[in-house]
Each structure stands twice: as structure tokens, then as C-alpha cells.
Design a protein that fits this description.
single chain; alpha/beta; 5-stranded parallel beta sheet; 8 helices
């Protein structure tokens, strides 16, 4: 069994992938989505129930920092032999913002203004997954690697990419850089030009 933790900002493409994964492989995968279920506790319950039934689970939420991702790692450890995979949707802030302005349907975020506010807040606290957290495999997907409508073969290709990736080697002295710090550094390197939300310092 696999606990597949999706990581990425709002609008990065996680749910399109997770929905297609469950749709194409319903007897192997269960999508555990907090927007649909309403709370992390219910997501945890569904994940445990699915693992008991022999399914692999895809945790479809932002999982923006180490503490949030740790919940799913701990659940995986409750089921010996379960692999812990991560797919990081490394979608630039500006691309997420553009997608959110065009998105018309979401279970909990009903307006573009609210979506951009949530994106800005999450970006401030976001930290990319790192080897020391305890994953077995991790891959990053750029926007060019993702789709709105995935075929079964597309999903299989991405899963094979994770499966064949180098095993994660833990590191002893991690350097933690938030998404906001990363964007600020890029802004300074570009001469102070920022393309993000000016009210949150880019």
C-alpha cells in the first residue's frame, strides 16, 4: 500500500490529478480530500479505513508545511510496510493566481477574491517537502507535467515516475525556506520586481 501525499498551493493542480487517479483506478486508490469531507479528522478517518481495506490513499490537500505532512506519515506508520510517496506540484504563484481567477467551481472557495486571499495566506506559510521528513519517494511536477484531464496512461506515467525515482536519502541539517522567502529572494534577484500580491510583499 501507498500513502501518496500531494503538496502544493491552491490552484497548483493537485485535485485534478487526485480525482483522475481515483477515477481511473478505483480498486487501487482512494482520494482523501478535505474540501469534500470538511475536516482533517475526517480525512484521517477515511485514510485509515481505506488502508485497512487494502487500498492505497491519495491525500488531496495543500499540506503546506512539515507539521501538516507529518500527520499522514504517522498514519502510514500505523500500517507496516506502507510506502510514503510525495508529489510536489511546483506551480509558480503567478500561475496559481491566474488559474484561481478563472476557476468557477470549488467546494469551499466560491469567489476569485477569496481564492486569491487564501493563496496569498498559504504562500506565506508554505515550505517545500524535504528529505528529512521521512518520505520514501518524492517527485516534483511543473505545470508542463500536469493536465486538466488525465488519461489513465497519464496517471500511470506519473506514478511510474515516482516509483522509479531515487529513494529519498535523509539529510541531517535541513535548511527550511518558505515559499514567501523563495519568492522574495527571486524578486530581489530580479531587481526588486515582484509579480505577486503587493499587499503581502510579493
Amino acid at each position: 500500500k501507498i500513502v501518496l501525499i500531494l503538496v502544493g498551493l491552491v490552484g497548483s493542480g493537485k485535485s485534478a490529478f487526485a480525482t483522475a487517479l481515483e477515477h481511473h483506478f478505483p480498486h487501487q486508490w482512494c482520494r482523501c480530500n478535505q474540501d469534500d469531507l470538511g475536516s482533517r479528522v475526517l480525512v484521517e478517518a477515511l485514510a485509515r479505513d481505506s488502508l485497512r481495506e487494502g487500498l492505497s490513499v491519495c491525500i488531496d490537500r495543500t499540506n503546506i508545511d512539515e507539521s501538516q505532512r507529518a500527520h499522514w506519515i504517522e498514519i502510514a506508520h500505523e500500517f507496516p510496510g506502507t510506502l510514503i510517496w510525495v508529489i510536489f506540484f511546483d506551480t509558480p504563484y503567478e500561475v496559481c493566481a491566474l488559474r484561481l481567477q478563472q476557476r468557477t467551481s470549488h467546494p469551499t472557495i466560491h469567489t476569485p477574491e477569496l481564492a486569491l486571499s487564501v493563496l496569498s495566506r498559504f504562500a506565506e506559510d508554505f515550505s517545500a517537502p524535504s528529505a528529512y521528513e521521512g518520505f520514501h519517494r518524492i517527485v516534483s511536477l511543473k505545470p508542463a507535467d500536469t493536465k486538466l484531464d488525465y488519461l489513465a496512461s497519464d496517471i500511470s506515467t506519473i506514478l511510474d515516475r515516482v516509483r522509479s525515482s531515487e529513494p529519498v536519502a535523509p539529510i541531517s541539517n535541513p535548511v527550511r525556506v518558505s515559499w514567501a522567502q523563495k519568492r522574495h529572494h527571486t524578486s530581489r534577484a530580479n531587481g526588486g520586481q515582484s509579480h505577486g500580491n503587493s499587499s503581502r510583499g510579493g
